[in-house]
Write a structure and sequence with these properties.
Oligomer: homodimer
Strand content of chain A: 15-25%
Strand order of the largest sheet of chain A: 9-11-8-12-10-13-14
Number of strands of chain A: 14
Helix content of chain A: 25-40%
Distance between the termini of chain A: 9 Å
Largest interface: A-B, 89 and 89 residues
Radius of gyration of chain A: 19 Å
Low-confidence stretches of chain A: 1-13
Largest sheet of chain A: 7 strands, mixed
């Protein structure tokens, strides 16, 4: 989900108050409850003096260098699943948060919270997975910490990764840069990660050949940046809360409307089927290897071409457009000519997805 | 405890192998088992390509700027205790890891792992404590993340803080800089934090007017740096594993002997009493607001004067000296003329102290 400081710049239409009596699963799900917690508690009390947001990462100037920083905890259950594991997820997630903030990852630090009794080989497998993911993303893991809690005080292991990166020249992403007419690009099919986790838990009686999409999106972001650099207005990796939540946050933060074309949104049959069974919208399902980019209208085709020609970006597509109206809202138009409002995620239908 | 990359430079006399079958509490205690885990698993698999250590923080160069980074998870139990709480501990611990690496803290990010059902006011209290601690230390909290796990899958809340800082001019700390004759300075009495936590848990039937020493040591480090800058060879905040473990790591890493004078080591009566009851050495008890500095012989008195004249450094003292022999060992000499070897912490007599 990235560091929450994106929210420090949110121009909330009204002051959010956090009045929930206790913390529930939904507060960690990335949707409405998360936003209430962040805007009602963290922003006023903690991030009040933040120097300025970069989207999924914060920007700090150190000795003249523009340093992006992002942190995330990972509590995914189970630890391993088709296509990945918690360690890989942690490294890729941090790399991606930096990438969509327009930063090149330079270093990662990792902290483990481990339940006493965890098999050493389970830890070793994750350490190896992290090392491999870091190597693939071209980033170094430079330090870490380990805490152990009593058996029963954690669920095997939790991983927190923090990444720092160097801001790319010529890339300045911000909700405030978004203009009517801008096009919404998506790097590939959605929902694979969330549904894979669900299936891995055996919660659905469904056989499916599906794997998490966890990967570094850095090569795709770099391809896009090389092609249309300053034409990129905004980027985000739609993890918890999915594409719908990311775009709702954007719509709210830029005060414009985002209109998606239902027939353009790539969703695998398995994901669609699982969502129908569960009564969920694929637009709300978490992704771990896709990203959204809003690109200036006259550069959108060039941006799309750059993505589709890059390895892993073959299924990239333009899924929608920014409009003046309906302000602050995400609409999906169907091929039958109808349209529906897509809201942020409410509740936590798929807990501990990352 | 700081990021583990201090260990990446450790010139281990022999290759450490991690063969423990499962993770135990001791692997998070900062002593021998932790070191085995770090050197036998994390260093070879994860930190192999680390650019170079800075002690409690790693050093990364970004656009010509020297950036220090450190991460730590906090799982202290109970969440609040006399003198502090988990949030304050997290911020101070991160500030201190940067400070003793010779870096000025510039920004902190925080990630919470919260057990569903936690009272919102408990979270709010910690958020406020973090904001206050950050303000006192002059550092900004710029971003964060929140994950929620089911009731029973965490112990109320865990906090992971990561800090980045700017390396101070003229301060270059490293075990390799330490020379025979150098003096070992300590900023104040030891063991307050560990014993406070123990008493807060009610595990000792002892009434005591004692509080955690958690605080930012940055002002003291800055005072020392202003006075003797390049004369500072090495610094460390002796948290998990205490002074004994920190100095054993130094002795091993620099290949020299460290001889402490028992009568010079400041320990409050309450701490000494509790340690006697438990059969523990105060040198093994965690501190959260003290630091050790090895200073060149001819600048040690000036360094000590700078510390004792600074607010909060009044009880600073020279506790020992570096010698050629016994190489790689920490000795304590008593007023009766005897001496004893003080080893690293073994096991985890005081779990979840930070």
């Amino acid at each position: 989900m990235g560091s929450s400081n994106v929210d420090t710049e949110a121009k909330a239409p009204r002051k959010v108050r956090f009045r929930d009596p206790q913390i529930e699963m939904a507060h960690g799900a990335g949707g409405k409850a998360s936003r209430r917690l962040i805007e009602g508690l963290f922003v006023p009390l903690l991030f009040g003096s933040s120097p300025g947001p970069l989207g999924d990462a914060a920007l700090v100037e150190i000795d003249g260098a523009r340093v992006a920083i992002t942190t995330d905890s990972f509590v995914v259950k189970p630890l391993t699943f088709p296509g990945g594991s918690i360690g890989e997820l942690a490294v890729n997630g941090t790399v991606n948060d930096l990438a969509v903030a327009g930063a090149l990852p330079e270093a990662i630090v990792v902290s483990y919270i481990i339940e006493a009794g965890l098999a050493a080989e389970a830890l070793e497998a994750e350490v190896r997975a992290m090392a491999r993911a870091a190597q693939r993303a071209g980033v170094k893991i430079v330090g870490g910490d380990t805490k152990v809690v009593e058996h029963g005080m954690a669920d095997r292991m939790y991983v927190t990764t923090t990444g720092i990166g160097r801001v790319m020249e010529g890339v300045n992403v911000s909700p405030q840069s978004v203009r009517p007419g801008d096009q919404v690009l998506l790097s590939g099919p959605i929902g694979d990660h969330g549904v894979t986790i669900l299936l891995a838990r055996g919660e659905l009686d469904l056989e499916a050949d599906l794997a998490s999409d966890t990967r570094s999106v850095l090569p795709l972001v770099e391809a896009l940046a090389r092609a249309v650099g300053p034409g990129i207005r905004w980027m985000r990796d739609p993890t918890r809360g999915g594409v719908a939540t990311s775009l709702n946050e954007l719509a709210r933060d830029c005060g414009l409307g985002i209109i998606l074309r239902d027939d353009k949104i790539p969703v695998r049959d398995t994901v669609r089927g699982a969502c129908e069974l569960l009564g969920l919208d694929p637009l709300h399902i978490a992704n771990e290897g896709q990203f959204l980019a809003v690109v200036a209208a006259n550069q959108a085709d060039a941006g799309l071409a750059a993505l589709t020609q890059a390895a892993g970006g073959e299924q990239a597509v333009i899924i929608g457009e920014v409009h003046e109206q309906p302000a602050g809202t995400v609409l999906v138009t169907t091929t039958y000519g109808g349209s529906r409002v897509v809201d942020m995620l409410v509740g936590d239908p798929l807990p501990r997805i990352c």
